[in-house]
């Protein structure tokens, strides 16, 4: 029988929740890295023992952690004794060294981005928001960072280099930070074409590469954002999350700042599918593991009132790829609930029926073992949840 | 031996309890102490000083014998009390809440 491992990043450490395939009894372990912000953890699809974690602090910066035994032990890659010394006697440990590419070959032109007041501002690395291990090599992993850029490691996280074609594109000076910072938060790898990657940035929009990251194209046609001077601009949209089903990598779903969108041409054009949602503001969006047209969102009241409408926590499911939505309420608090669900805090397993999981800023992890029909909390009182990823283990 | 006191977050990262003792070769300065610290505990690289500029991170300060030396030259000699190990070199993070 398969096992389930839920990786939870919180404001004050990491937690791992495990269960057998029945998904009824859960073991909660943690906190690991107590007191640090864990923006994201994700396991390698190619190796169930390999997990990457982004550990951050405003005081002490970025740490990259790696586990090679399914989360039992952790290390900062490249820190073993035999890997330490460089020629000058200093440690080589560079697993937390994220330096924007300024080399003549690939890092030019070195752009600036737009600051809150409209002036241009240099890129300044702050943290890793999202780690995306490649589909077939546990040592190959991508990192989406703030200020927005995409980094890649091909040595298990020991060293990182920027895929500078994204940041250096001619739209870079128009990107701007949202309230949460200017973050690259979503990385989708096309399972049918290793050269094709989709990423999303708040607040710039969605971008696609067809050549493994060397060149990038903004793909935001059809987005309409009232909160920017040109609502249909090429870039500047606050995309909160995009998702795909691995069987249909040209169909993308998007939760934008406001609006739920879909594209059926790999992002070349988008149409709104908010339909009968009570509000189309929100953060996460995800796709059922076995039904490519079944998608989930968590409507939030507004961009300043970051809690569910009327204090009722409801996941909305569409079985038609958008437009027609049903409220999923069974087992979720339907009064006095004022938590938020952040963009990386929803995930699905691949069991039958599909399991759906999400975490809240109130520290609850809710799970559904029947594709959203009903929900139960796995744990109720963790620190504010930043991210949830689920691994279905053999 | 040079005694170094790390803030709790970095003690956790370096997997040490209490003070760290270091043997520093040559002149005892902020730079030589931190270089030696990072050789011994490479996971601390980038957490106290920026990887590239080697400048102190903004929310980290260095205290010695009751004085704030955060803004002194990293190559200025540290007091004898540090070199002899009678006083620790304190690395302190800004006071945190939340």
Report the uncertain regions of chain A: none
Number of continuous helical runs of chain B: 3
Radius of gyration of chain B: 12 Å
Span between N and C termini of chain A?
A: 7 Å
CATH class of chain B: Alpha Beta
Beta-strand segment tally of chain B = 5
Task: Give me the CATH architecture of the largest domain in chain A, please.
Answer: 7 Propeller
The second-level CATH architecture of chain B is Roll
Total helices of chain A: the number is: 0
- Average of per-residue pLDDT values of chain B: 93
Number of strands of chain A: 29
Q: Which strands sit side by side, in order, in the main sheet of chain B?
A: 2-1-5-3-4
Briefly note the structural class of the backbone of chain A.
mainly beta
Report the uncertain regions of chain B: none
How helical, in percent, are the residues of chain A? under 10%
Task: Write structural notes for this entry.
The complex is a heterodimer of chains A (394) and B (98). Chain A has 394 residues and is mostly beta strands. Chain A folds into 2 domains: 176 residues, YVTN repeat-like/Quinoprotein amine dehydrogenase (Methylamine Dehydrogenase, Chain H), CATH 2.130.10.10; 137 residues, Methylamine Dehydrogenase, Chain H, CATH 2.130.10.10. Chain A contains no helices and 29 strands. A 4-stranded antiparallel sheet of chain A has the order 3-2-1-29, with no helix packed on it. Chain A has a 4-stranded antiparallel sheet with strand order 9-10-11-12, with no helix packed on it. In chain A, strand 2 and strand 3 form a beta hairpin. The termini of chain A are close together. Chain B is α+β, with helices and mostly antiparallel strands and 98 residues long. Chain B has one domain: Ubiquitin-like (UB roll), CATH 3.10.20. Chain B is 23% helix and 19% strand. A 5-stranded mixed sheet of chain B has the order 2-1-5-3-4. The model of chain B has no long low-confidence stretch (mean pLDDT 93).
């Amino acid at each position: 029988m398969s096992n389930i491992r839920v990786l939870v990043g919180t404001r004050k450490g990491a937690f791992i929740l495990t269960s057998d395939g029945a998904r009824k009894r859960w073991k909660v372990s943690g906190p690991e890295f107590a007191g640090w912000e864990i923006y994201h953890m994700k396991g390698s699809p190619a190796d169930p023992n390999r997990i990457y974690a982004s550990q951050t602090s405003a005081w002490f910066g970025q740490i990259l952690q790696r586990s090679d035994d399914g989360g039992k032990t952790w290390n900062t890659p490249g820190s073993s004794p035999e890997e330490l010394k460089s020629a000058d006697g200093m440690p080589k440990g560079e697993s937390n060294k994220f330096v924007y590419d300024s080399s003549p070959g690939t890092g030019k032109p070195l752009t600036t981005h737009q600051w809150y007041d409209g002036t241009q501002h240099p890129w300044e690395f702050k943290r890793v928001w999202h780690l995306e291990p490649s589909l077939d090599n546990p040592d190959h992993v991508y990192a989406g960072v703030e200020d927005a850029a995409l980094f890649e490691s091909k040595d298990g996280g020991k060293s990182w280099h920027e895929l500078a074609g994204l940041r250096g594109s001619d739209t870079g000076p128009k990107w701007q930070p949202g309230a949460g910072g200017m973050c690259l938060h979503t990385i989708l790898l096309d399972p049918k074409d290793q050269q094709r990657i989709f990423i999303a940035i708040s607040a710039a929009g969605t971008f696609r590469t067809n050549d493994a990251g060397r060149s990038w194209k903004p793909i935001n046609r059809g987005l309409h954002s009232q909160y920017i001077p040109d609502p249909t601009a090429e870039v500047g949209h606050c995309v909160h999350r995009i998702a795909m089903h691995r069987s249909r990598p040209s169909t993308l779903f998007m939760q934008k700042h406001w609006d739920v969108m879909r594209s059926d041409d790999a992002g070349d054009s988008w149409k709104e599918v908010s339909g009968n949602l009570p509000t189309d503001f929100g953060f996460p969006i995800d796709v059922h593991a076995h039904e490519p047209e079944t998608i989930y969102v968590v409507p939030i009241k507004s961009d300043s009132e970051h809690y569910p409408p009327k204090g009722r926590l409801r996941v909305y499911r569409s079985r038609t790829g958008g437009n027609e939505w049903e409220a999923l309420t069974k087992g979720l608090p339907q009064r006095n609930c004022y938590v938020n669900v952040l963009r990386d805090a929803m995930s699905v397993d691949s069991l039958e029926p599909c399991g759906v999981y999400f975490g809240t800023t109130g520290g609850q992890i809710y799970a559904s073992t029947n594709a959203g029909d009903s929900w139960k909390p796995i744990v109720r009182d963790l620190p504010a949840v930043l991210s949830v990823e689920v691994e279905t283990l053999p | 031996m040079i005694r170094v006191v790390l803030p709790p977050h970095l003690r956790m990262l370096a997997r040490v309890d209490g003070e760290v003792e270091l043997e520093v070769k040559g002149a005892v300065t902020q730079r030589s102490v931190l270089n030696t610290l990072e050789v011994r505990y490479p996971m601390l690289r980038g957490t106290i000083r920026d990887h590239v500029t080697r400048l102190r991170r903004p929310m980290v300060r260095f205290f010695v014998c009751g004085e704030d030396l955060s803004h002194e030259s990293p190559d200025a000699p540290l007091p004898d009390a540090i070199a002899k190990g009678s006083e620790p070199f304190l690395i302190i993070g800004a006071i945190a809440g939340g």
